Amino acid sequence: MMIPILKDYYAYGYLATGDRHHLPAYLPNCNMALRREVLKDVPQYDPDCLAGEDADFCRRAGLAGWELFYQPSARVWHESRPGLIDLIRQWWWYGRDGAHFFSKQLEKKCEIFLNLELTPKMHHYHKVFSLGWFPVKMMLFFSWFFIFHLLLLMVILGFALGLLWPSVCLTLGMLGFTFRQFLHSPLRKLTPGEFLLYWGVTWFINWSCILSSLRGGLRKNMLFIYPGI
Amino acid sequence: MQFPPFIWVFRFYYWLAIRCVIRRLRGITGMISVYLSGSLARQDVTYGLSDIDFKILVAGKKDKTLYRQIQAIFAGLRRIFPMLGPPDEKGIYFLEDFAADYAHYPLLQHQFDERFYRHELLWGVDLITRLPLYHWSQINQQSTFSWRLKDCVEKVHILAGCPLLTDLQQHNLLTKAISDVMLLVLRLRQPNLVYQNREAILEESAARLPGADGEMLRHISREKPRCYRGRLVNLNEKYRLFKRAVDLCVMELGGECAEVGARLVMPVEMPTSVSGPPHEVIEEIKRLSPAIDDIHIFPWIQLPIDPLDLHFFGKQILLVSCTCPIELPDLIHLRHYYRDHLVEQGVLLLEENPACLLSIYSELLDHWTAVAGADDMVEMLLNQTGFIKIGLRQQNCINKRLDSFMEQLGNMLIGYDIGRMERRIFLPFMFNAIRTLIFTQEFRKGRIVVTPSAPAVLEYLRKQTPLKPDYLNLLEKEYLQVMEEGRELDEGLTVKLRRLLECMFKAVQEKKEWGELEFINNLPDKARLGISLALVTRNRPAQLKRCLTSILQQTRPPDELVIIDSSNDASSRKIVNSFMYPFRMILETTVPRGVADARNHALTLAGCEIIAFVDDDSVADPDLLCELEKVFLRDPRIGIAGGSILNLKREGNDLLSRFMEVVEKL
Questions:
Q1: Which residues pair with residue A140 across a beta bridge?
Q2: B475 closest CA partner among B430, B437, B425
Q3: A69/B658 touch (CB, cutoff 8 Å), yes or no
Q4: CA B530, CA B58: separation in Å to the nearest integer?
Q5: Rama region for B59: left / alpha / beta (φ>0; ψ in -120 to 50; rest)
Q6: Of the four listed, B71, B466, B614, B620, which is most buried by Cβ atoms within 10 Å?
Q7: Residue B641 domain-assigned?
């Protein structure tokens, strides 16, 4: 559901079932098959899940002891949404309705996940912080995208307050780290034009997802940030 | 950086790493003690280069999950402390199995010997002093002699041809090797002898060796190690003496065994046809040394301890006979040729005179010292008689090996590990396991049946079991296609093969006859799973038409198609009804209540074993269901399978389709 393209998202073979620090991998409904015996353990999709019902199903099957397998040679071509607005709206729904799925996964009162890849994969988010007690339920996913914008805000504030050197240092550090991540990401394969296109479209997608996830989380009485792709 | 300000930082960093490890480990239930071992405990540490080695003692039996848990802890900590070594079998010991391992595994004894490894208790109960550890002098050293001999021969064969060694170093190496092996011979005769130095050993053995060889040894013992200028013995002569010494040692080891117990005589069945390596290989071997005059080929029959020990499966022994002793340079050429071209096909044994063999490859020495270990039958191969004599000790050895094999195979069958196995080794594994089951069954009846390769296994199954020949032919064809032509394994065939292995295992375990396998014939040769394809659609008639077309083009059509239509009008229904379906089709129209609800409805309607989902706005690859079925046949524990989702290119060149192309490129 939350992956538009799944060519190299996983490696061939059994998928990770998740551990204390990671969320489990899942297979999207668009190309998925299940054994009938699984229905004995997981009788049906959760009808309350408006988005992420497949991820929820896979997670519950994994908890019941079933294995998930990814076979890249089983291929399906999926048509994307017809226009940019539709795509952004789709990600708006994902952010808003994903809150239900993620609130089901919340083990402690507050959990913070971090992934600094430029193209973050869901099951690569690492749980860096969790607390058993907290005033509100909280589940935050910090991606490079989100942190970059937070730091950008700090830099602007710094310049505005006249803190010249700290702001310059922060800017240089930010750019250096971004460059390092860029060299380790598949984005380096793109031409400058393609890179700009990717960056521009994902900028809208990610912000729509972040804002809608905040809104969706508030409806579930939790603080939830999911930063998209 | 090994001076004050830096070394303090390093020391703190190392100390911190050790504290963190202890902190994480002590929470695990069953943890008894953590020892520091290796260079850090010996205090000759180079900070920044040395790693930190631990010995971890855990209560109870060997436990895979606990083992993985400890490994995971180390993997996590290694991100911050890269000097933490990987904890493998050498580092984690389970106490209930410790005594047994320690008793028969020489390396383990070595690792707890204080002269080589000092241990420092970091946390827990100090158990090493209370463990059943014997002092070096108390251990039956003879049990490790075959290992030491093997090490020695391997070292000489690797180093003697090394171009980096000078002439002087080669002389030194061979002299040391001769004295090491002679020491083993002398110790085998008189266990408690003590010698001051190598010269004394050589003198002593020269006194016991009659004739020219004794003279030669005496000359060697008088050589001055630092100046070989006035040397009396040349390199080839030394190498010949080394071989003589190894022969003596092997004879001593075998002699020790021959005294024990009565001998059984067992009939041996060999496979009728053994196809050798190509003619040019034999020509090439003959060309490498003028001494070689004959080459024989035998099936290899080593018994695996572990079902996954596929190293020797389907290989042959090439027995190369020479009329005169082979020289060191020729031997090195032969060894290189063997490593480059023959390792995959077989193993090479060199016969210089009928009484002894020389190994080219170190693993062969296992074979050769088999007179002591007795788990192979080179002797039998050389005699080529219909009967083999086996001593009681040898019989016990074989039985022990077969028992451990059966135990491990049983564990694999229970744990469904076979499904998880890499597909490349699946068929060799199956045939290896069946081959050893056959051997076990026949050995218990007092017969030795040799089935070294898959065709020989199938030949045996044809003759001795009630299995239908059609199925066995099918298996043989599949084996050849997969192993030789590199075709992908047909998972449909593997289900019955797995069932066959389980039944054979049960028959051997319960000591029953192969006649019990009769019912296997009733299983279908090629397993098949029923697939229901579920399609949920809403208000997308054009895309639905495209999707249905792709479903009808499947190379493996579904057994049933369930379509849940929650559209607002009848156009989708019309499109569904406009196609002809060669399988069962169920069309249900519902009110739109969300996609999860529609899918739940589809789940209740679908009747087959596998339920596959496809979206209405996607196009399926013709092989989609075929590939998914393969996954489910492979392992009964797989509950959910899925595949790749690619971008369907739409007409026109708008911004979004270009964006999707970019995403697909990543």
A1: A112, A225
A2: B430
A3: no
A4: 48
A5: beta
A6: B614
A7: no
